[in-house]
Amino acid sequence: MKQNTPRMGNLKKKILLLLLAGLALGLTRSPKKHWWILKQIPKEWKNENRQTLERAINSLYISHLIKEKEGGDGTTTLILSENGKQKALQFNIDKMEIKKPEHWDKKWRVVMFDIPEKLRRLRNSLRFHFQEIGLIEFQKSVFVYPYPCHEEIEFIIELYNARKYVRFLLVDEVDNQLHLMKKFNLN
Questions:
Q1: What element of type H or E holds 136?
Q2: Would you list the DSSP string of 18-46?
Q3: Into how many domains does the chain fold?
Q4: CA 141 to chain centre
Q5: Residue 88 falls within a domain, yes or no?
Q6: Is 3 inside a domain boundary?
Q7: Do 134 and 64 belong to one domain?
Q8: For residue 2, is it within any domain?
């Protein structure tokens, strides 16, 4: 069965990211329970149009990005499906930034990967995301960065299930260090 992939507007992205963060969205038909749930959610959700929110949730449900879990008290809890988790992680990667420390520790982070030709799309995706977060391609499939970025690299590797192809090095010197320092505005 082919899955419908909905257009991802900001509201749908927000729903998936909040579910990824562990927030359980609860819905109920009982007015008493409804007001209790509304008191529990952040103020920004109270500004959302109830019908728009329900349409967004229904679309995510139809596309198998979220699942419903019925409670004995008449509530319905929404949870992410595996597909929904992957989609939410993709949104997180689009906003990823490496925080730069005040002072450079004079070490280089080198990320290398060797991915077979039959997995060219994976290789291109890694290359794209490494460049997006600021790494510079040192040579084909080798990237360099002057600041701590291990967590960000790990996140990308996990997202693409590419651990067996990627290596991360922390080095003191690079032979063209002056050129790299200039590229990263390090003095």
A1: strand 136-139
A2: HHHTTPPEEEES-HHHHHHHHHHS-HHHH
A3: 2
A4: 22
A5: yes
A6: no
A7: no
A8: no
The identity of residue 119, as a single letter, is: L
Q: Grade residue 2 by pLDDT with cuts at 50, 70 and 90.
A: very low
Domain that holds residue 45: 10-93
Distance between CA atoms of residues 119 and 116, nearest Å: 6
Burial class of 181 by CB neighbour count within 10 A (0 to 12, 13 to 18, 19+): middle
**67 with 109, same domain?**
no
Residues 6+ apart with CB under 8 A from 81: 64, 65, 66, 67
User: What predicted TM-score, i.e. pTM, was given to this entire model?
Assistant: 0.57
Same-domain check for residues 88 and 162: no
C-alpha to C-alpha distance for 117 and 181, rounded to whole angstroms: 32
- The Cα 62–Cα 9 span in angstroms is 15
CB 56 within 8 A of CB 12: yes
Query: H or E element: which one contains 183?
Result: helix 177-183
Q: Percentage helix, strand, coil, to 5, in the chain? A: 45, 20, 35
Q: Are strands 136-139 and 166-171 parallel, antiparallel or unpaired?
A: unpaired
pLDDT of residue 7: 61
**18: pLDDT strictly greater than 50:** yes
Q: Greater confidence, 134 or 97? A: 134
Name the residue type at position 178. L
CA terminus-to-terminus distance, the chain: 57
Query: Helices 10-20 and 50-62, interaxial angle, to 10°?
Result: 70
